[in-house]
Amino acid sequence: MSPRQACLQCLQREPPALFEAALWIAVEHDDSLQPTQVLSELHSLQLQVSAGLPALPARELAQPLLRRLAELDFQEDDEGVTRPRHALLHHVLRSRRGQPLTLALIALELARRLEIPLQGVNFPGHFLLRVPGADHLLDPCGGRRLYTRDCREHLYRQLGSGVELSAAHLQTADASDMLRRLSRNLRLLHLQHDEPEAALKDAERVLQLGQPNLADHLARADVYQRLDCPQGERYDLERALLFCEEEGLRLQLSQRLRNLARVPAVH
Description:
Elements: H1 3-11, H2 18-27, H3 35-51, H4 62-71, E1 75-76, H5 89-95, E2 97-98, H6 100-113, E3 119-121, E4 128-130, E5 137-138, E6 145-146, H7 148-159, E7 172-173, H8 175-192, H9 196-209, H10 214-226, H11 230-243, H12 247-261
Parallel strand pairs: 1-2
Antiparallel strand pairs: 3-4, 3-7, 5-6
Helix pairs in contact: 1-2, 2-3, 2-8, 8-9, 9-10, 10-11, 11-12
């Protein structure tokens, strides 16, 4: 079974094995990784975290869990330049530095093991967490509580003051949502660091994890362009056209396809 197949199979379990699935994504970029070993090592971290939690009902332990992880030096990466390893789960576990989403994946797995209710929230630009039914969200990087005003300010910083906070920004993320976001993060980071072959793996995985859309087909077309693969680029541009309703963009995509048609076939 390939790492991709193992990842997808994790999603078929009930409940989905999110953390293990994310490890199989990491295997695609590091074939020396053994997910079973990492899962076993996580038990040691679970004991460390559990030992530092207060004697409170499980529903009140989500924020203490995140604060405990911060005490154990799990922090958002502070290198200035975010690298692919900051989105690869096994590297984050070793270095204790990562993106908000990867830190959230660790927190969610520990919460599951400790029977602490906790959910992911697909907030733009910075993945967040929530306790079901709570009137606030939690930052996976240290556990700070975020109320509506905080979320609105955070959204303005990410997308500009013209964007209004809506329920769509606060939706709970299921396992597939989180793995797609992780894959998109990796796709972007691999491209930024001139690793288009690795980015192609991530771009393909995004399309397998959920319903394809315009942006994801365009993203893979751009990866194929970097790889000088006009056949793959053409395929995704044609699919993107099927989703596109904006006339200006349709014209751009059509012109790009015409330009590709002039590229001689390689035999």
